[in-house]
Amino acid sequence: MKTALIQFKTGTYKIRGADTDVSGMKFPLIEHFKQGKNGAYVTVDGAAQAGFPERSIRVKIDTPQDYEIVDSNFDEVKQNALKNTVKDTETDEQVMERIGKRFGILDEMTRACKEGNIRAMIVSGPPGVGKSFGVETQLEKDSIFDDVSGKSRRYEVVKGAMSAIGLYSKLYKFSDPKNVVVFDDCDSVLLDDLSLNILKAALDTSKKRYISWNTDSRLLRSEGIPDRFEFKGSAIFITNIKFENVRSKKLKDHLEALESRCHYVDLTIDTHREKMLRIKQIVRDGMLDEYNMPQERKDDVVEFITENSKRLRELSLRTVLKCADLAQSFPSSWRDYAATTVLRSS
């Protein structure tokens, strides 16, 4: 079977309602340029790129010049290679074992950060697969003795936006050895030049890591924060960003600077199948044990997720918990409620 491999000069594809830039990406061509009711498009095989649907997709473009053929002899063997042949040949148990091993490594690496043996780690994976839960669980376990002795916890999870001066202050408060700052989907610190320079200093590979704030600040003075200090703690970044898929030159440079100073843990959950198996793995390990309902109904929840996985608003552990909440609250009619709240309309 012969087909062509094309590369986009510009174009977008909508994922979860947001336009995703495909500039520079390569896809196997399914159908050339067409003019539709809602604009022009070209049809390609989305399975060639992680994060895209594993089916034919229509990429929105303006003219036929927005893409070019880079290999007219592209054949089925090469196409399968793009889909990651190794993953395609894995059994369900092998996939779950691979993912479970990655999460086990994440647990060990988190403990190493808490002990100060590792200064920085990046955790990459799609939303709703347990990245944050795994990290926070390990830090929580190691904070039990602090709670018993009445000491302040030596870690904090930062979510949402953060300014450069806020970052500087937070790192100072957790600058002691065995302290950890977790940035959970706090990607704003990666997009700001000043914030990134602070992080680069905090996570430098030199024996002593000094951070400076060389601009006068009333906020820092009022909180007694010096304009220079040594950071001896660790940092963990939890993100949905797949670093190797980033196309923005500025952001790519920023992420590379950060990645060079951190251990990078990719949880390897990229496909629909892997997300579904991750859900089954966590349920099997007891995620629904806390719910006061018979096992049969818990099994029904998993069955509902499996049957409707392609129609879910989000295929994630959060959706499983939403369905379990409904199954516990409305034992006889929870499927109707779930169909209304977690499924997309037909």
User: Span from first to last CA?
Assistant: 34 Å
Strand line-up in the sheet with most strands:
6-5-4-1-7
Report the C-alpha radius of gyration, rounded. Answer: 23 Å
Number of strands: 14
Low-confidence stretches: none
CATH architecture of the largest domain: 3-Layer(aba) Sandwich
Structural class: alpha/beta
In the residues, how many domains can be counted? 3
Note the quaternary state here: single chain
Largest sheet: 5 strands, antiparallel
- What is the arithmetic mean of pLDDT? 87
Give the SSE order as H and E letters.
EEEEEEEHHHEHHEHEHHEHEEHEHHHH
Notes on the protein architecture:
The chain contains 14 helices and 14 strands. It has three domains: 5-83; 92-266, Rossmann fold (3-Layer(aba) Sandwich), CATH 3.40.50; 272-341, no CATH class. The strands form four sheets. Strands 6-5-4-1-7 form a five-stranded antiparallel β-sheet, with no helix packed on it. By secondary structure, it is of the alpha/beta class. It has helices at residues 76-82, 85-88, 92-115, 131-141, 144-149, 164-173, 188-191, 193-202, 218-222, 249-259, 272-284, 295-307, 317-329, 334-341; strands spanning 5-8, 12-15, 18-21, 26-36, 39-45, 56-61, 67-71, 120-124, 155-159, 180-184, 210-212, 228-230, 234-239, 263-266. The chain is globular, with a radius of gyration of 23 Å.
Which tags fit this structure?
14 strands, 14 helices, single chain, Rossmann fold, alpha/beta, 3 domains, globular
